[in-house]
Design brief:
Leucine-rich repeat, LRR (right-handed beta-alpha superhelix), alpha/beta, 4-stranded parallel β-sheet, 19-stranded mixed β-sheet
Length: 552
């Protein structure tokens, strides 16, 4: 192998001369760089942050307790450029707000309170600003000066209790890639003109959910000028006019579309992008589900993974068109006016992990050519086809018979809802360590609770209300050591409440809120035993239980 060439004496000499003549300059630059890395920050920006802190009148979680001294680049939520020392990121979001199962007062307790100071204008190099989930809006409009932070690429002011009119100055933030100004349920803000959106041509993520846009004539035209847009959330915006055709609009890279909780009528194709998530729940779509699927761009048929059409007033005799969406992982079409049977094509959805078709009028005969919602038993092949399912909701149908041992093949199941059917018996004795929630309420012929000897040690929610359970409350229930919610309402139990229920430590935690969202039940700790006239407490004390209802 040839030896590496040696550096020439001439080159070394030239370098030496350069260092000789430029030595003082290089040294000065080195000292300047050292200032950037020694932990101190730029004085004017530090003073701006101090002024911002002065506008915060409440900090119960003490997020700003580190905001003192000279080293602002190491304060909580502050990040400086390692090259220039300028503040480039301010992230003071309320971390507790992401846990939506918490009560409103728990979210507020951990929120910053006060106002957003205009001193932030001194942070001329600020690229990332996240103040979400805090009480900093005071019910007034988003401050006009926010539109002058022109270096921003990321802005999240969601759930800050802003109100009034959204000012068009946000359109000055032409470098924005991410914009989230969604509102809490209690807030009210509106806009009659969203043409300013068209100036944000670098935008990839836009969420204005809750912002009232009923007076906006053509929001589609404004959004159409965002060639890089991948995520669009306009939930609960009062978009009460028919959505015009998007087929020839510039949504070529759109991946997520959320228009839920509006009154929109999708009469024409809704896009030409590579849609992966479509949420149109709680709309007045009106029409056959087959027509709705046909309106989707054909290029999205292989990309859609999440389709939500709950309470959208859709009808149809069959669901065959839905199963052209071969990549579906989540399909939720509950609470509509669907009837007929489910075609065999559902078996081809090999990626499906969550299926919800409850509260429809599905009827027929269960066989290998049909599925669910039928007046018959569940076929054995079903459990093999959906062996990777995590959520299974077959509620509000007319399924009868017993739950077969084949259910043990669903090794990843965490939530199972067979409520409002005609099932009998109990869950088979198998290893259900992943199962977190079981709802077999209102299965009117149920007569017993199976042994929990080898399954269900991870189960957290057990709903047996509205059945035909009788006798003593079964001791097997107490083997669910992680149980947090137990509902035995509207049965015919007699005798005493088992003393061993006291040993269910998770059931006696201090949680006093029961949410509407069933997924949030996984976090709650509730005991519900009502409509049992013969139940006696026998002196049992549950000192730490804060939510108990025993109605007689």
């Amino acid at each position: 192998m040839a030896a590496a060439p040696r550096p020439s004496f001439h080159g070394a000499a030239v370098m030496g001369l350069l260092l000789f003549f430029l030595g003082p300059t290089v040294a000065a630059l080195s000292l300047s760089s050292a200032k950037t890395f020694n932990g101190s920050c730029i004085e004017a920006e530090r003073e701006a942050l101090f002024s911002f802190k002065a506008g915060v009148t409440s900090d119960p979680s003490r997020r700003l307790r580190s905001w003192r001294g000279q080293d602002c680049c190491h304060w909580y939520g502050v990040r400086c450029s390692t090259r220039t020392g300028h503040v480039v990121k301010l992230d003071l979001r309320n971390g507790f707000f992401q846990y939506r199962f918490l009560r409103d007062d728990e979210q507020v307790v951990n929120s910053l309170g006060g106002q957003i100071s205009s001193s932030l204008l001194a942070l001329r190099h600020l690229k990332h600003l996240d103040l979400s989930g805090n009480v900093l809006g005071g019910g007034t409009s988003i401050p006009e000066f926010i539109g002058s932070l022109k270096s921003l690429t990321y802005l999240n002011l969601s759930y800050i209790n802003f109100g009034g009119r959204v000012l068009p100055q946000l359109g000055n933030l032409t470098k924005l890639v991410y914009l989230d100004i969604q509102l809490d349920d209690d807030a009210f803000a509106y806009s009659a003109d969203v043409s300013w959106i068209a100036r944000l041509r670098s935008l990839e993520y836009l969420d204005m959910s809750g912002l009232k846009l009923s007076a906006v004539v053509d929001w589609v035209h404004a959004v159409n000028n965002l060639p890089k847009l991948r995520v669009l959330h306009l939930s609960d915006c009062e978009l009460n006019t028919s959505i015009p055709s998007l087929q020839h609009h510039n949504f070529t890279v759109l991946e997520e579309l959320d228009l839920s909780d509006n009154n929109s009528l999708l009469l024409r194709p809704i896009g030409t992008g590579i849609l992966r998530m479509i949420d149109l729940r709680s709309n007045n779509i009106v029409g056959d589900i087959r027509d709705l699927i046909q309106r989707l761009p054909k290029c999205s048929w292989n990309s859609v993974q999440d389709l939500n059409l709950v309470e959208s007033n859709i009808t149809g005799m069959a669901l065959k068109s839905a199963f052209n969406l071969s990549s579906l992982r989540i399909l939720d079409i509950a609470s509509n006016q669907l009837n007929g049977s489910v075609p065999v094509e559902i078996g081809a959805l090999k990626f499906l992990t969550e299926l919800s078709i409850g509260n429809n009028s599905l009827i027929g005969v269960i066989s290998e050519d049909h599925l669910s919602g039928l007046v018959d038993t569940i076929p054995d092949w079903f459990w093999t086809t959906f062996s990777n399912a995590k959520t299974l909701d077959l509620s509000y149908n007319q399924i009868s018979g017993v739950i077969p041992e084949s259910i043990c093949r669903l090794s990843y199941l965490r939530l199972l809802d067979f409520s409002k059917n005609q099932l009998t018996g109990g869950i088979p004795d198998c290893d259900r360590k992943e199962l977190k929630q079981w709802d077999r309420s209102s299965s009117n012929n149920a007569s017993r609770v199976n042994s929990a000897s080898s399954y269900g040690f991870e189960i957290r929610t057990l709903l047996l209300n509205n059945n035909s359970l009788s006798g003593h409350i079964p001791i097997e229930i107490t083997r669910f050591v992680n149980l947090r919610i137990l509902d035995l309402a509207n049965n015919t139990f007699s005798g005493v409440i088992p003393q061993s229920l006291v040993n269910l430590e998770a059931l006696t935690n201090d949680v006093t809120y029961l949410p509407d969202n069933p997924f949030e039940l996984l976090y709650q700790c509730v005991l519900e035993i009502r409509q049992h006239k013969n139940i006696q407490s026998d002196g049992m004390e549950m000192i730490s239980l804060k939510w108990i209802s025993i109605w007689v």
